[in-house]
User: Fold these one by one.
Assistant:
Number 1:
Amino acid sequence: MIRINNIKVPLDFDFSELKKFCAGKFNIPEKNIYSVRLAKKSVDARRKNDVHFIISVDISAKGEKSVKNAVSIEKFVYTVPEIKAKKRPVIVGFGPAGMFAALVLAMAGTEPIILERGMDVDSRVQAVETFRNGGELNPDCNIQFGEGGAGTFSDGKLTTGIKDKRIGWILEKLVEFGAPDEILYLAKPHIGTDKLRETVKNLRQYVISLGAEIRFNSKFVGYETENDCISAVICNCGGNDYRTDTDNVILATGHSARDVFEMLYKKNIELSQKSFSVGVRIEHLRKDIDKAMYGSFAGHKALKAADYKLAVHLPNGRTIYTFCMCPGGFVVPASSEQGRLAVNGMSCFARDAENSNSALLVNINTQDYGSSNPLAGMYFQRELEEKAFIAGGCDYSAPVSLVGDFMVGRISQKIGRIKPSYMPKTKFARPEEYLPDFVCESLRMGIKEMGRKINGFDNPKAVLTGIESRSSSPVRINRTESLESVSVGGLFPCGEGAGYAGGIVSAAVDGMKCAEAVINKIVSEINK
């Protein structure tokens, strides 16, 4: 099989005629082509008068090696050995890292036990909607915690900066469990929070069919050791503690499990500080962003809601960048602790809501924490979230400001044509009430520069909603080359929460790696 890259096709291209197109373009008799597959598809909108697709195709054909500019490819086949573990491995957390760790361990026949502090995804949806509609926050089941992890209530974005042969296999599995097959070829694939929920449930049912056990509402609260190695985990369910014997634990709790970080710190597990970013969500009208990105092609039936990705290096040494951009989406409450407020972005597969939003973040260095404590970054986050909670009126209303008012340092008085999408409520407040001065200074400079890159980005009526503080973990749980904690054998820190991933795909890859490390450890012990 060969792959041919960088093929330009118009927006009106008929992809059902792909085989015929390739036969003519590459001078291969159509009868000699065994198969053609769309491998990649992206929008090239650099010239607003010539918006088109750039595609890559995989072709299997007689005489394929003679095609110019083609690259030979081989399909990656993922396998794991079938083993019988003396004790069932335990996975803490059922987000992307935990799910794919569970999948690999279940495929190997180890019958893993998964502990998830939140509820199953259907019950979790109810808890999230209750909070969004003004009800109480459930600290153990919310946009951060519960089946599927934080990614389930985002956009299901699958873009990643890492290169790993496992990625294609992960995408194929997601499609097998219900994700749209377009994620296999889109340059910027996404599932959408609505379709991701069903995908998560199907994956769960599959690992259970392979012998895995999932315990919801089971919070990881401790562990026991013997000879400096894990011998058991303790979880709390319904107010009671339960002990489970195990000698291998994959710790995939996510970046918001602050109680776990504190517990590990008290137990002298080696942790280290990690930089992260903080800022706000910026909202524009979806149609305005589409127009800015696509020009006169905006609204074309072949184009979905436009996205963007921006970064500016500032004179003050900081960097401001957009993150987790949600075309046609909503700003949602991402709080997980009482008295602290955080926001995130979410969109469904259709991406057809009125607004488009993105995190607008400024980098925070470990020097900004003012302490050598490995949890200093976490405390820094908490302090800002407490200020945002107060700025919003102490009832989980989100503090908002219009860009035009923020740029001159005044509090907003009236919403314009762009309505905040955050629920339950919003309250006008100056970002200076909850963000450090250097962050506000950086946001002002960055918004101005980004307005030069995307027409209307600095629209005075655009809405800023705070605080976006959960983009990544401020803590790293240090691990060895075998992926075990440097402090305790059999403990495998994993994914975003442990500081080794940044997004759904990279977390899933790290989950697979940790599962493979557990399998290798078990095999090594069997062969002793």
Note: DSSP finds eleven helices and 23 strands in the chain.
Number 2:
Amino acid sequence: MDTVLSDAETFCDLVRDHAAHNADNPAFTFGEETITFGQLDQGANRAAQALRSLGVTAGERVAYLGKNHPLYFEALLGAARIGAVMTPVNWRLAEPEIAYILGNCEARAVFVGKGFADTLEAVRSETPRVEHVIGIDAPDCAGPDYRTWRAGFSADPPGVLVASEDDALQLYTSGTTGRPKGAVMTHGSILSSREDAGQEGEMRKWQEPVEGDVTLLAMPCFHISGTGTGIGTMVAGTNSIVLPEYDPTRALDLIESYNISKIFLVPAAIQILLNHPRVEDVDFSRLKYVTYGASPIPLELMREAMRVLGCGFVQMYGMTETSGTIVALDPEDHVPEGSPKMRSVGTPLPGVEIKIIDEDGEDVPANTVGEIATRSSKNMSRYWRNPEATAETIDADGWLRTGDAGYLDDDGYLYIHDRVKDMIISGGENIYPAEVENALYAHPKIADVAVIGVPDEKWGEAVKACVVAKGGEELSQADVIAHAREHIAGYKCPKSVDFIEALPRNPSGKILRRELRAPYWEGKTRAVN
């Protein structure tokens, strides 16, 4: 493997460099198919030319609705080479939610994966801007097949100048007010971890690209964990083994057959893997690092993972709005007997500033709980077409308020204590109560409702609805959950329902969620699970 030295401003440049120096090296493996860096580079050029033929221009959004697929990354790269921006859509969402995102991002061209053409067709009447639909290995798609479509165009570079400050990726986050927001990442924010660590000479060992590394890409590409992993291996010049979706049986098979060296998983996925009947028989000797994040991990689960997998573990803290990881707990801080540091999420990555602030935005001393704020080149540029939400999140000095409550100890380790915002994290998915409440309020027998997160042994947290029924109406838990499923994704729906006489509110009418949450979190040292 030749060393690639580049002053690249975009991930497009880096892939082009890898193709020039290591064209035959594998970039993505999917089932029996392997795409080399040379093929990826040429395919992306063809996709760029094909998109341009549809009239797609710089700054325009294109979308993808489907499970993980290496051709998604090729299409992302092709769009980026003409300055267009990929917007992957969460395929687990309900049709009204999918329609909203496609309408909000104003995509005229949509790539669709196998099994989702009917879903897209069902929302076409609500998404009139969608003009072109291209199927990625999707025989049920009425539009052209991606491979055939892009094969008809030149593999020459499109010749569009793309800079580090240009938009590159748009991912939708759950919304505090019931509507998701499009977080816009630039080429610079996506590449900043690599650039900052290189400039400061502080790249941590687990961050370093190593020849022969093979990464299992198992998390969904509609999250930064999935798309970020794929872009990361493209930038590093290493191979990603792509799973359409997380499957512990397939994951164990691939770990052995492809000598997987790195995996990112959420804690719930780690637990599912450890519960697999074959896990004790699998050879994990080539596995170097498991990175994990999205929610805390219990010490007992971590101890078991360290025993069975026998590799280094890295806890990551970040969010979509920070283009992924900004704080990490290194393998050296993971010890089987446990330690105070293992309750933290680690220390900031090179180039990342972290501070803790009070309600007025003022700094608080070490070991004092407040809201976590961060400033770095990793921060998103803005929320798409939402200047009010952007201003509420990022101040004039570039500090981004995370919505998480925590504290820094005297050694600079960050601890997550609670959430300032009412977000619930279940199985690594972010859920805002407002989204669920908006769906439930439409039920004709519900007078009032509040949604909270309660501890759950498998998923970390589970959604609970506290419902006030209209006078004289009979309402069951099954009725409430079934109604929710008609409007929002299944993972957002309540897993349980409490029927109460009235919701606790303060004098201004705000629901006192902490009073509703308190009985379920009693005895726990932190109010996140």
Note: The mean pLDDT is 92.
Number 3:
Amino acid sequence: MIRERRNKEKLASYYKKFMEEGIIDPNVHPWVAESWQRCRAMNLPHENWPKINRMSKTDTAAHQKTHADIIEFVDGLYEQSKQHFNIHNLSMILVDSDGYVIKNYAMPFFQRIIEDIQGMRVLEEDVGTSSIAIAREHNVPFLMFGPEMWVKDSHSGDACATPVTVDGKLRYIIGFFSLDQHDLPYDLLLSLLLTMKYSIEQHLTMLERWNITRIMMNQLPVSVYWVGKDGNLRYTNERGEKRLDGHEHPEEVFLNYEHIPVKKALQGTATQSREITWITQDRTYEDITSVMPIKVGSEVESALVMSMSIEDLKTTIAHATGYSSRYSLYSMVGETSEFLALQSKAGRVARSDHNILLQGEPGTGKQRLAHGIHQASPRAAAPLIAVRCHSASIKELQEEFFGRESGELPVAGKLELAIGGTLFLDEVEKLPVEMGDRLTDVLINGLPDKSGNKRNLNIRVIAACDSNLKRLADKGLFSRKLYELVLDTTMRVPPLRERVKDIEVIASHILVEMSAQHNLPPKRLSQEAVDLLISCSWPGNIKQLQAVIEQAFFHTPGSIIEAENIKLPGDKTMERSWKYDKDAFVATWKAAGGNISKLATMLDVSRVTLYRYLKKYGLGPKSE
């Protein structure tokens, strides 16, 4: 409250009259008068400071640590204005909403009356009438002249205080005190106080929003990077930090960083929800990535990258919808007795609740079979959660299976997501023995919560293995407990060389799927093309056949795929055609629509290899 300058001698006479006679002069400010009367009723001493209500030194230090963010900000405000504090012999204190002094600044006033005010409580019931007590009670800035204060030792100076509120709630109080008796520039004093009030309130609002944003960023299944125009990383969330593995610059970690459209964003071009591969020294991430330019005025100053793992996306969708199976048992085709027996057994097993071990060579369709069994089971409405048992550290596997605590909210592990449904362990033979033993114990006995109680998971396990799991368990290279858990039902998935008569059926089915997936006209195989496919031994099984068919689908201009359109595995002509012929590579690149994943499938090579050739032939995003 802005007040006119008052005559100190008259104010002192009003104070004396009340203290000696208990009479309130009509010229005393009504808020001050009310406070004086309450202080008299509490029998507060007024000649000297009353007994101090304060925190211990340990509690004061902890108190300051709790309010470290606001202390840092107020320190900066004070630093910009300390010249005025020195000139006018001003002191300042920062008080919390409960009335405890958090920190004091430039102490000449308080050094005369009390040695250390930090940790002291300065409510009305502690120190009597003060500008802080009035500002706190009435929630307005208040200027108070010395003789209006309750404690006589304080009459030598003036004071003003203001509440700091956010969303109508009192958060802090800022108090100014002066020893100058004459010519104090009250207008300057109040202007400085109100400027600080506004600045702190805006800062607190920003901090609150940033804390919510940070929690949200750390809980979203997305890696977030904020990259400056100079390429330096300004911010990353927890998932992004984990991928960076201690490095400060993304280009130090991602081998194909020049092909990720960050530089395009820094030049003003946004990339929305594009499938992008992030390649590190140890791992490859398949993500849906958006990169957006951030402008200050009309100039692009930075780029925001948000990238979500496709695998995490599938898991999130599965958890949200309770359904994640992509294939039915009837999406697998064949006419041989070996296949029909497998399909029939899968249908019977699906209706039971037994755990299942799928054994077979790589590429035989174990993953699709697991999806089909889940979809045909009574658990079809619950999630199917897939875990690829890659060679990760024990800590990473523990987080993947059992989750972790992150900030204020827990991050669920794959076991919790799979409750009531199916857990598919792909390449289970790669799981360390220690992790296999612990996983088995939790699956059988339950998942412990924070209180130590164990929660029944009700999860069916389907494990897929490319090796002889029994032999690995016998040699101590695989968890015996986990092997016995999944041994309820064992299904052998035959290799493609044992299903030669199914090759034409499978190839034709792949063509139908390709046509539907890419919204392109259907294509079919000529008899010569079928004969060529049958002549191959297919060491990579159905997965390898699919890659060859997809490559032929995109390279055949007409509706009939002839034998010359098919490049079999190990075909040196195919190798020469794209490794040494830029035109052949460019044609394939265009046929894949610039999609790295599709191109890798068509050429049956790794993405790391593709990025070398993209750079060699000058394709993809240009680096500066």
Note: Residues 571-576 have pLDDT under 50 and may be disordered.
Number 4:
Amino acid sequence: MLKVLLVDDEPFISQGLSVLIDWKEEGYEIVNIATNGKEALDYLRENKVDLIIADIQMPVMTGLELLQHIREEEVSEAHFVVLSGYSDFNYAKQAIRYGCMDYILKPVSREELLGIIRKVSHDSEHLRIDEMNQRKMERAYLEQNLISLLVGKYDETNLDYVKQNVRFSEGVRYVDVAYSDVIEDDLQDDRMQRSLYREIYHALRELLGPDETHVVFDASQDEKIYDAGFIYCDYMAEERNEAEADYLEKLRVQLVKKNGKNICFLVGKKVQTMASVSQSYGTARILRSLEAFREKKELLYYENEVQVSQGGIVLCKNALEALISSIEDNEPEQIRECVDKLYEELKGMGVAGDVVNFNINYLLFQLMHLATEQDDEVNQEEILHFVSESSFEEGVMRGSSKHLARFACEYAEYLAQLRKKVSHGILDAIEKEIKENFAENLRLRELGKKYYVNSSYLGQIFRKKYGKSFSDYLTDYRMTEATKLLLKTDMKVNQIAEAVGYKDSDYFIRKFIELKGCTPSKFRKNREEEGIK
């Protein structure tokens, strides 16, 4: 409800205004009636209102004096309407000089008053939307700077901005927040994944209250991976006289109650400054990669969970060689059996983080070598890029045996396609698909099925021809179409986002900034100022 302050020394005038219209139905509430300007000014110093209707001639302080004090002292930003029994132009001129919205004569007609308050409602709604959008943009810019620190790609400008806008202390950790009872195989729909992690993001911001600036969403910046988390600082627990682990566990329990799903905290290595937070972020991601190898816990600390065994790094060579052989033979059932045996062996070792990484990296290296043997026209650099990107997208480096089995089967088919020398002409059809259906949820996997080509191999030859991944090519094309709509239509930014394939306008704005260097609104404004239509 919009708040109204009436100021008049004649009670019958104030009472008349109170009943002249149905204020509540119009979205207003009369919060106070003052009998002179000073009384109104005292009230405004302690309370916020949206509309002031004041008589000109009053004892102690007139309506014009009240308006002058409000503007000069910046007491209130409320709309101001002068009510007077005088039609003298000098009164109106003075009122306008001090930013009076309107000047109306007594007796006030119902239609005139309705016209004024509806204009105030309209202006207030636009102001509210503008302020909301401004806060949204400021929040997005802050998060972008925080993410730059997390991924270790920042300069002093990023660091200074974060220090100015985020409270921090010594003792910093990144806490990765994940669903402990929902595996990624259950979340095939991108929108579902993004929605679930956005719920965590908003719930965390609400629970952290004044520290909500520490929360980040989608820090990985990868369209295939969804995550949420926050930057913990020692002062958060100290101010509550709690131990760090107790503070984090209480916060996790609150989040579970609010979210309705089981949630775990993966707590990265402690660092001393915000400038080093990328180290903590990286170790939290390592914890995520090892989830499949350990008993389920709700609060995991990097220092406690990731340890190298006393016997040093161990290579499960026999299990790995058997898996590689089954991949080369393109035998899906055998591949799955070999993956299960590899994981059983890894679990039997007690699972040190470096042991797991070493074995997976050995496997990927050998698979890269197999590909170069199949097609000597494919250079190792291209294969290395494909293997590392595909393995991460499929979740292999995050620890799931199901992901590894799926990736291994895909790679086996990829090798078979290399042998068959799939025609590159199919890329013309893929390019046409993008141009005609860029606003749809295009996935390389589905296009591979449509054209009977292994999606892994399709991705590699696409990159070879266009110099970028399918995902990046699609994003670039969507942004090109978005710029056309910005320049040639009056569509709103959220409408343009949906028109080019983004249901989440925040994500669209962030990608637009990355590629164009400014927000869509700023881009449109700049081009209009340059005279480009």
Note: The radius of gyration is 31 Å.
